Amino acid sequence: MQWHVIDIKTGNEMWVTEPLNVYTTSDWSVYDWTVLAADGKVFFSGQSGCVVAFDLKTGRHLWTFRQESSGVMTPYGTCPHFGRLNYADGKVYFAVTEHTPTSPIFRGYRMYCLNAETGEPLWEIPGFYNGESGAIADGYLVTYNGYDNRIYCFGKGKTAIELSASPKIVTDGSAILIEGRVIDKSPGAKDTPAVSDEDMTEWMKHVYMQYPAPQNLKGVTVELYATSEDGSTTRIGTANTDPLKGGVFSLMWTPPKESCHVITAVFAGSKSYWDSYASTNVGVTKASPEAPAPATTEQAKSIQSVINSQQSMMNMLMILVAIAIILGVVNIILIVMKLQK
């Protein structure tokens, strides 16, 4: 199969491709009859299961996307494409199928999202999409999957943050624990943990296609801020969620001053999720004066020893005072008796 590009204003041939099997290394390119032109490029695909891109003006070959081998699952050595390509936002959407599907349907069919500049696969999802790459509008792609007879919608998902801080009231200089989680609020994956863009393909396979759950998932990043009663805002720090534990995050923080602080967690969004935020409050009061520390056992024994020694001295002084009083009384009596004589 060769493609000829004609100038519609003059009818002159602008350029012609080499036989497409030169670019795909597949003789099934004789049936590569699907074409899509967008953003100064033209893309060809078909029974070879490849996508080949050219510069629309010059015919320069830009890139070729090849799937992995299908082994003996199909007679083509790969999964063929029969239908159309789709394009939006610098991406080519490419769903594999064939002219007359067998029953049962071959395993391994899927849809790819390719970078239109490089041909690099950005993501892929299993499914028998009947050669149609769906309808695209308002940032969402909607298509039908013949494997499970369901309609799927692809795009950014809504998120929500659950946030708490404890204890709610602390004294100045004490630390609090800020914790929460970031969850997906999309209708089909509601309340599942948010995961990183790089892990999205494997995660979506698990959530929607019953694939095994990935064991090394990465989460998303949350920024934490505190706003005091005087309106000043302090950046607390950054926390990363753990999707293997439900999407939780946590961070210890010591408030810098007495105030009612509004703690805010912000998820800025990603290529896969819209942003979200949540807030909670903590109060910081003035620290009470420190109470004197109780005496140790050694200190108590030392004090008791001092008290005992002081008590002995007091007893001796009291005896001496008593003797002095008695002697004084005796002297007075003797003087009185002498005067009477």
Count of the domains: 2
Q: Strand tally, please?
A: 22
The succession of helices and strands, N to C, reads: EEHEEEEEEEEEEEEEEEHEEEEEH
Helix % is 10-25%
Task: Describe the fold and architecture.
This protein is of the alpha+beta class and 341 residues long. The chain folds into two domains: 4-154, YVTN repeat-like/Quinoprotein amine dehydrogenase (Methylamine Dehydrogenase, Chain H, 7 Propeller); 159-285, Immunoglobulin-like (Sandwich). It is 17% helix and 36% strand. It is built from three helices and 22 strands. The chain has helices spanning 21-24, 200-209, 297-340, and strands at residues 4-6, 13-16, 34-38, 41-45, 51-55, 61-65, 86-88, 91-95, 110-115, 121-126, 135-137, 140-145, 150-154, 159-166, 169-171, 176-184, 192-193, 221-227, 233-240, 248-253, 259-267, 276-285. The strands form six sheets. The chain has a five-stranded mixed beta sheet, with no helix packed on it. A four-stranded antiparallel beta sheet has the order 3-4-5-6, with no helix packed on it. Strand 16 (176-184) and strand 17 (192-193) form a beta hairpin. The longest helix is centred in the last third of the chain and has 44 residues, at 297-340. The protein is rod-shaped. The mean pLDDT is 88.
In short:
The chain has 341 residues and is of the alpha+beta class. It has three helices and 22 strands.
Task: Please give the structural blueprint.
Blueprint (H helix, E strand, L loop, with lengths): L3 E3 L6 E4 L4 H4 L9 E5 L2 E5 L5 E5 L5 E5 L20 E3 L2 E5 L14 E6 L5 E6 L8 E3 L2 E6 L4 E5 L4 E8 L2 E3 L4 E9 L7 E2 L6 H10 L11 E7 L5 E8 L7 E6 L5 E9 L8 E10 L11 H44 L1
Parallel strand pairs: 15-22
Antiparallel strand pairs: 1-2, 3-4, 4-5, 5-6, 7-8, 8-9, 9-10, 11-12, 12-13, 14-16, 16-17, 16-20, 18-19, 18-21, 21-22
